[in-house]
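--- STAGE predict ---
source: upstream dedup step, 1 unique chain passed
mode: sequence only
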Amino acid sequence: MKIGVLTSSRADYGIYLPLLLKLKADDFFQLEIIAFGTHLSKTHGHTLSVIKRDGFDKIHQIDSLESDDSQKGISISYANTILKFADFWQNNSFDLVCCLGDRFEMSAAVQASIPFGVKLAHIHGGETTLGAIDNVYRHQITLASQLHFVSTLDYKKKVEELTGTLENIYDVGALSLDNIPNFQPIEKMSFLEAFQIKNEDYALVTFHPETVAVDSNITYAKQMIAALAELTKMLNIVITMPNADTLGSVYRKQIYQLKKTHPGKIVLVENFGKVNYFSAMHYSKLLIGNTSSGIIEAASFHRYVINVGSRQKGRAKSKNVFDVSFNSKNIVDKTNAILKLPNYTSNNVYYKTATADTIIKIIKQYD
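--- STAGE serialize ---
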């Protein structure tokens, strides 16, 4: 079975990885990676090199992103991606193509595939993120797909509502958590030295723009920096950089300034890679920001999360997640409160066993 996997960023690649490794090892599949989006962007770490390092034999490369991350720039990137993928789908055929999540680049690649009748398997459909326009992109991808792998029962019901059918929709849990009970972090000192992180308590921080309230992002970015500057008095701050959303550069500018004013307390990482990121989570005191990894993965590492703003609003959350507004005082106060709590020991609502194996079994039956 010839199977393609669309990957547009470090984030979805890390989620895919357990599935990719099993597809690669299974002679039933002829696997081809279709890499585009920020994978080919130097600004975002040129993470195509990570895919190559992992040893995948066939990697298609499609470069379509504009450096401009204004509303107009994102629209042009969307259009460019559709144009590039029109040629790609014209010249390449697959028995099934996997797509994941809700990025605008992913949506564009999928939309271009519709006239060609490409069979799509969508992972992480049915979710809700009220502070991001990703809702629109995610649901577009769902409607274009024939096979659906969702992460909770509620999301399964949402996909049933969107598609108008009960068929080919499977609640398999979050793919990124596949085999998570057996995860072994990188040895602590080796990890810290690799990323020049001090052997001291730190918060792991990731902020992305809110793409619904676009005009508020400058204010939000300033509140973020004010909070992080205050938190340097009690913690070091390890920041993973924003992705290629509308006005992501606004956050980057503020983060670079924070690093300049607090050089001994701030560490910036463009791309950890999955194992390093999970290790960073494991050794952190808590997570702060508005990234989906705080919602989906942190509970499995027994870490509390301060979820800031509305970007992830509407997503199912485990009891380790605390919501606050984009207000520096609220962020600092909640951090102080969390640092006094006992370790988080409850469950992760996204975890199910053998997610990758379940997906592969279903794909084989679907074929």
